[in-house]
């Protein structure tokens, strides 16, 4: 134990003396400041803008005069997706997912205006967020700082002197891993501080965001990940014949894990579980919609049957005798059926996406980078499930809006058309303000943990595996 | 002697492994590309069928009201990808390449996105352009970083110096062997693209190839400069890799962040809101207030009667038009911002080779923002002409059966000619020459003696 | 004098090549044993086996009666090793290097004590705080000797310690070795330097193709005679 401490301290002493570290750390700090600033300004600008637009949309909703509720169902509303505060740390998929959706009766619109749609194509090179720095770039830095540790001592024979002092190879690997890990924590420190400052600068954090809980989990996961990276660097260094071989091996590992595998796995995912394109999807939805009939079409057979049965149930001969507005009733029924069909299709589509992504999720067992990335995106509220959560929310709100308007119509609108030149059928505008505005909530930490169970398990296994890796490397690595 | 050196290089196990890995990755990228094309083709077929079926059904369902019928009918406008798009998918998996529009307000529908798995978009496509832009430099670095330092570290340098007369010629020879191997790899992959995708042998493919070759030569120039500095293998590798991280990851990402911050497109959202309010508030306004601006916009329709006792669709479409007209300012501002982003990106690209190559490759393949902008502009023109075709029929409530519905098949967008790539690649060429020349100067100044640094 | 190093039929076999064949040898405390032989004769292999860096194919190596494998860590308590090229940490000073290696062996010394070891090993005091990168080969060797002293090693293995040293450094080195032996240390040295071996060693072994062919006491042999024997052997 003592030896490990001495070697770790020695590694740090040597590394701190090298001019290279000063340069790398300076560049690192610049990058951290850049990423933190960009993340902060994107979050602040976008959330302010979106909150403002949400209010603006609400104002014009409330500004509507007395009118027929069905007009209001078509006037509709907007849902703007608010970012989670931790999205300042990890942008995740936010640049690719839409941010605003128009909500109206009868129609499920797409969530539009993703940042990627406005991008010049540069987005394809990736983004610099604090999380990218920690998860993608820092491993590369650690590989640089760690590749020569044991390998070079092996090359020039220092290792033999070290071992002849009575130290085991295991202690050498442990010590250097620990030293490199401490170094990685020194690199993590400004990131954590930057993220903390980002949060503190916000006037208020959403209460359901659980920023502190999520943030602490993130920190823990990142530290576990950096430990794994550190041990990999040292074990590869110890098992290589020379520092050049160690460097090439580590670079190969980095390239494979961080760049090539994530892309390839998603390609595999979408090849194994092909998802329909927009028009295939629309065609399928329309086919099923046609089966249930068109609530706007008075000649529609399904709705003609419905009318007969309703009249019968109320012992009425015509819709004028019904105690409620029949048009509203029919549209409520239509909305219910069409929403059911659409949501079923959408659920199918999203389940396909989830299956595609599951390949990446399980790949965390062979690639800790993917695991930490998934957990980090989930905790930052920037992954696919967070997006799906928003879309479900927006759809639920849309449905509620359409059905509330239909019910208002049933309740307050006469079945008899007004005389020509008379005031058109309408209800008071107080009903508009009575209908609540769209409010977005974030997922609970528990839900996220459940979704990310495979990735969490993978990281835990990687963490445990790192000890086995040290043990086996120490047992099998050749000193000479 | 050259041949001997060549086989010495190519026979090394690690080189063979690297080449095999790149061939496999390259072939995977080609399959990914051709799958992309197939998906696009499937989408084109799906929308063609959908349009035909919807026209048929709605014409049958609504045979008597042209205005109501046109509420439902949608018309496809397609940006069909060039086969070359399989090699450089660019933004094409994000952008909508098919617009399926009604003659109602354009702004409310032109930004509708397709259905995508955002995780796929986040990881991006492993297409050939990615292999060339991202991975080839790493291969070049791995081949070159110790070309000189290895000789010194293994002690062969003094011997080589005595035997080989000119040190410069020796190094150039070693580098040229590696260049031939990398270019050979590129050539094989392009040839495979012609077979697998298949990409037609045309001038676009030639432009694509020339750009790729230039880009590869650029990285050789970078390697040469670093080699000329004569650091140890480890430090050379570190420097080259830092170049790669800077040029391929950090540089473009920082430029992108800057562009996003410099030109935020809030107008996108306000267009969205204005379009809705512009249209919907007209229901409660005096009808004259809607019709006046409409006739101002389209004086040719002022002779039509709109205030007949029956519900008139002219007023309805005029309200739709009002939505577009009121959002027009923001819509234009937004497009201007996107154009500014594109222009500034091009300026930055002159300094960052991978960015420049990326923009060039996607422009050649027609998958960049430039062509997307053209497509969006052209979509507006398509929407306008469809509208103008149907407006008189709606306003006169013409007979639905009198229209030749068979002619309303999807229309295809034709891009105007791409830029002159050789001119656009000038900065890359200039950089390559400057780096190479600097390398030569440094190499000469350092003399033939190998001094170990770092 | 008690036996400190012992090799019993020690053999190191690589697939088709025998690096060391049936070496049996015992060395007493306080001896300076010099191993002569051409490159590839098995000298370094013998040292590596005693150090526990290699596993013997047959036979065993014992230090102070304890078998080296599988007790390398225990046997390493008593030994020190000075390789042909002493590569220590270039960015640390001599005193810092000594401190690090002593701590590894479980000894914590004050600065004065460390300086005393360096002085005892023959290093000029003003060199203590200079970075090791600026040291000559002889100076680095002295740091390695100081490491051995600080560890209080009973056996010091040296691999061609005098190769590449200038005559003065060689003379200094020889003097220090004699002092060490006088203080009861055992030195086991592989060398090419016949004259130095005769001058310094108490016993000399001559190896050829993995076998120990001769063992002679230096008391009864002159340098010229030894050279004669060496050349005949190989």
UniProtKB/TrEMBL annotation, chain A:
Thylakoid in keyword set: no
Does the UniProt entry include the keyword Transmembrane helix? yes
Alphabetically, the GO molecular function entries are: ABC-type transporter activity
InterPro entries, sorted = DUF3526 (IPR021913)
Give the UniProt entry's GO cellular component terms. Answer: plasma membrane
List keywords of the entry alphabetically: Membrane, Transmembrane, Transmembrane helix
Pfam (any one): ABC2_membrane_2
Residue ranges spanning the membrane: these are 21-43, 128-150, 171-196, 216-239, 246-265, 453-474
What name does UniProt use for this protein?
A: ABC transporter permease
State the organism of origin.
Answer: Filimonas zeae
From TrEMBL, chain B:
* UniProt entry tagged with the keyword Nucleotidyltransferase: no
Q: Which residues cross the membrane?
A: 12-32, 128-148, 177-199, 205-227, 234-255, 418-443
- InterPro entries xref list: DUF3526
Q: Keywords assigned by UniProt?
A: Membrane, Transmembrane, Transmembrane helix
One Pfam family matching this protein: DUF3526
Any idea what this protein is called? ABC-2 type transport system permease protein
- Organism of origin is Filimonas zeae
Native organism taxonomy: Bacteria, Pseudomonadati, Bacteroidota, Chitinophagia, Chitinophagales
TrEMBL record, chain C:
Report if keyword Calcium is assigned.
no
Q: Which InterPro entries match?
A: AAA+_ATPase (IPR003593), ABC_transporter-like_ATP-bd (IPR003439), ABC_transporter-like_CS (IPR017871), ABC_Transporter_VariousFunc (IPR051782), P-loop_NTPase (IPR027417)
GO molecular function terms noted in the UniProt entry: ATP binding; ATP hydrolysis activity
UniProt KW keywords:
ATP-binding, Nucleotide-binding, Transport
Q: Where do the ABC transporter domain residues begin and end?
A: 5-234
User: Can you tell me which residues the record assigns to a coiled coil?
Assistant: none
Keyword Nucleotide-binding part of the UniProt annotation: yes
Membrane spanning residue stretches: none
Where does the source fall among the domains of life? Bacteria
**One protein family per Pfam:** ABC_tran
Task: Supply the name of the protein.
Answer: ABC transporter ATP-binding protein
Q: Which organism is it from?
A: Filimonas zeae
């Amino acid at each position: 134990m003592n030896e490990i401490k001495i070697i770790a301290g020695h590694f740090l002493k040597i590394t701190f003396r090298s001019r290279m570290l000063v340069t790398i750390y300076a560049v690192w700090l610049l990058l951290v400041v850049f990423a933190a600033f960009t993340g902060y300004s994107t979050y602040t600008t976008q959330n302010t803008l979106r909150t403002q637009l949400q209010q603006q949309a609400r104002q014009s909703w409330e500004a509507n005069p007395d009118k027929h509720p069905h007009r209001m169902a078509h006037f509709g509303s907007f849902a703007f997706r608010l970012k989670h505060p931790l999205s300042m740390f990890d942008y995740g998929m936010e640049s690719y997912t839409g941010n605003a959706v128009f909500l109206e009766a009868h129609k499920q619109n797409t969530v539009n205006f993703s940042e990627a749609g406005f991008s010049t194509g540069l987005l394809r090179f990736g983004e610099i967020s604090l999380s990218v720095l920690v998860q993608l770039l820092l491993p590369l830095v650690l590989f640089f700082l760690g590749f020569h540790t044991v390998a070079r001592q092996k090359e020039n024979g220092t290792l033999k002197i070290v071992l002849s002092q009575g130290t085991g190879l295991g202690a050498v690997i442990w010590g250097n891993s620990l030293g490199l890990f401490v170094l990685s924590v020194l690199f993590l420190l400004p990131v954590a501080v930057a993220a903390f400052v980002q949060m503190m600068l916000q006037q208020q954090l959403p209460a359901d965001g659980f920023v502190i809980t999520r943030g602490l989990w993130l920190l823990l996961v990142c530290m576990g990940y950096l430990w794994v990276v550190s041990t990999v660097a040292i074990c590869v260094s110890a098992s290589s014949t020379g520092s050049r071989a160690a460097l090439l091996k580590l670079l190969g590992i980095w390239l494979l894990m961080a760049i090539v595998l994530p892309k390839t796995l998603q390609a595999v995912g979408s090849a194994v579980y092909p998802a329909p394109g927009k028009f295939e999807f629309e065609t399928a939805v329309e086919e099923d919609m046609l089966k249930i009939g068109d609530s706007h079409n008075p000649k529609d057979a399904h709705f003609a049957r419905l009318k007969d049965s309703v009249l019968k149930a109320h012992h009425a001969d015509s819709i004028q005798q019904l105690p409620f507005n029949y048009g509203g009733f029919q549209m409520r029924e239509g909305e219910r059926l069409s929403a059911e069909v659409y949501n079923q299709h959408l659920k199918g589509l999203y389940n396909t996406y989830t299956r595609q992504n599951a390949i990446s999720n399980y790949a965390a067992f062979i690639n800790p980078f993917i695991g930490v990335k998934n957990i980090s995106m989930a905790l930052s509220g920037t992954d696919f499930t967070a997006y799906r959560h928003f879309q479900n929310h927006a759809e639920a709100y849309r449905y509620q809006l359409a059905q509330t308007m239909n019910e208002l119509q049933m309740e307050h609108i006469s079945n008899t058309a007004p005389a020509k030149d008379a005031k058109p059928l309408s209800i008071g505008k107080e009903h508009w303000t009575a209908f609540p505005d769209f409010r977005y909530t974030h997922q609970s930490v528990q839900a996220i943990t459940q979704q990310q169970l495979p990735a969490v398990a993978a990281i835990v296994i990687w963490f445990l595996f790192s000890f086995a890796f040290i043990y086996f490397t120490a047992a099998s690595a050749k000193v000479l | 002697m050259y041949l001997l050196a060549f086989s010495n290089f190519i026979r090394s196990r690690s080189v063979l492994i690297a080449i095999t890995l790149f061939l496999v990755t390259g072939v995977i990228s080609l399959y990914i590309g051709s799958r992309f094309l197939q998906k696009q083709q499937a989408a084109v077929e799906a929308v063609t069928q959908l349009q035909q079926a919807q026209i048929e059904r709605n014409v049958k369902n609504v045979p008597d009201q042209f205005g109501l019928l046109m509420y439902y009918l949608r018309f496809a406008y397609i940006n069909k990808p060039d086969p070359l798009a399989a090699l450089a998918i660019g933004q094409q998996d994000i952008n909508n390449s098919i617009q399926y529009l009604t003659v109602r307000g354009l702004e409310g529908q032109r930004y509708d996105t397709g259905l995508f798995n955002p995780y796929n978009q986040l990881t991006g496509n492993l297409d050939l352009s990615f292999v060339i832009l991202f991975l080839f430099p790493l291969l070049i670095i791995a081949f070159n970083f110790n070309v000189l330092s290895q000789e010194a570290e293994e002690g062969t340098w003094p011997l080589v110096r005595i035997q080989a007369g000119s040190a410069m010629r020796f190094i150039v020879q070693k580098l040229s062997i590696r260049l031939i191997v990398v270019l050979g790899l590129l050539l094989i992959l392009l040839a495979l693209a012609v077979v697998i995708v298949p990409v037609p042998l045309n001038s676009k493919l030639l432009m694509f190839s020339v750009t790729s070759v230039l880009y590869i030569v650029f990285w050789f120039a970078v390697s040469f400069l670093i080699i000329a500095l004569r650091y140890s293998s480890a430090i050379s590798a570190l420097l080259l890799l830092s170049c790669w991280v800077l040029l391929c990851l950090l540089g473009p990402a920082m430029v992108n962040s800057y562009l996003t911050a410099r030109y935020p497109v809030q107008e996108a959202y306000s267009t969205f809101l204005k379009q809705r309010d512009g249209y919907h508030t007209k229901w409660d306004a005096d009808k004259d207030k809607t019709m006046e601006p409409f006739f101002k916009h389209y004086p040719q329709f002022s002779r039509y009667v709109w205030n007949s006792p029956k519900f008139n669709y002219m007023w309805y479409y005029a309200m739709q038009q009002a939505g577009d007209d009121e959002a027009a300012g923001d819509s234009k501002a937004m497009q201007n911002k996107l154009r500014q982003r594109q222009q500034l990106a091009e300026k930055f690209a002159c300094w960052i080779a991978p960015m420049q190559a990326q923009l060039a490759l996607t422009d050649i393949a027609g998958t960049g923002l430039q062509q997307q902008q053209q497509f969006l502009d052209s979509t507006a023109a398509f929407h306008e002409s469809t509208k103008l075709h149907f407006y008189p029929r709606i306003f006169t409530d013409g007979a639905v059966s009198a229209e030749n519905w068979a002619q309303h098949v999807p229309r295809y967008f034709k891009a105007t000619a791409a830029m002159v790539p050789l001119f656009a690649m000038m900065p890359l060429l200039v950089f390559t020459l400057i780096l190479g020349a600097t390398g030569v100067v440094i190499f000469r100044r350092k003399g033939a003696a190998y001094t170990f640094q770092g | 004098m008690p036996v400190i190093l012992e090799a019993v039929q020690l053999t190191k076999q690589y697939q088709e090549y025998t690096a060391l064949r049936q070496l049996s040898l015992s060395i007493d405390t306080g001896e300076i044993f010099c191993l002569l032989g051409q490159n590839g004769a098995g000298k370094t292999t013998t040292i590596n086996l005693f150090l526990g860096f290699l596993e013997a194919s047959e036979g065993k190596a014992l230090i102070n009666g304890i078998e080296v494998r599988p007790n390398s860590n225990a046997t390493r308590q008593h030994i020190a090793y000075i390789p042909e090229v002493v590569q220590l940490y270039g960015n640390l000073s001599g005193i810092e290097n000594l401190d690090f290696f002593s701590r590894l062996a479980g000894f914590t010394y004050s600065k004065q004590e460390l300086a005393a070891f360096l002085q005892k090993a023959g290093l000029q005091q003003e060199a203590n705080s200079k970075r090791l990168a600026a040291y000559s080969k002889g100076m680095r060797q002295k740091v390695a000797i100081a490491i051995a002293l600080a560890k209080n090693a009973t056996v010091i293995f040296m691999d061609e310690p005098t190769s590449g040293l200038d005559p003065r450094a060689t003379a200094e080195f020889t003097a220090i070795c004699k002092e060490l032996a006088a203080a009861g240390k055992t030195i086991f040295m592989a060398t090419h330097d016949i004259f130095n071996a005769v001058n310094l060693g108490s016993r000399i072994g001559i190896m050829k193709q993995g076998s120990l062919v001769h063992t002679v006491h230096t008391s009864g042999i002159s340098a010229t005679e030894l050279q004669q024997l060496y050349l005949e052997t190989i």
